[in-house]
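Fold it.
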Amino acid sequence: MKFVFLFTLFLFSSSLVAGEPVTLDEKLEPLRPFVGKTWRGEFKGGDAEKKTIDVSRWERALNGKAIKIVHSINDGMYGGETIVRWDPEKKQITYFYFSTAGFYTTGTMTRIEKKIVCNEMVSGGAAGTTEVRSTYELRDDGTLLNKAEYLKGQEVTGSREVLYKEAPGAEVRFR
């Protein structure tokens, strides 16, 4: 019995080493180019001496039925975790984001060519922000451009632009 277990374990680990593709829910396949990667992004604008840096890690979760994204800004000054999944009732990709600032969001993602279009509703604070609209564009040079605008009701009250590059050695940190 021990031999059967060890042999099975060997076969399973060998298939992972051999580079067989990791399974992902077919409805989440449009997000595969982002999964298994760590991204480091610099916010556009702001203080040139004290840059705002975001590190995010996209991982397969729940046996491929979800994607988990963790991120931290400036080594843990702020951060959050997202769970992305296919919602069979809404027939679209949905997500839940929880922040270290105490608020959370619920949103939807749609993949359009090389862009992910997100719309999320904010709950529990966030300085009065009620909605965030954003896009993530995977560019031909391998970078990932994120643009977002923040709304209070129907009024746009702020925005951000972050250019990410793959950074395998970067770490998401929480304080």
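Residues 27 and 86 are 6 Å apart (CA to CA).
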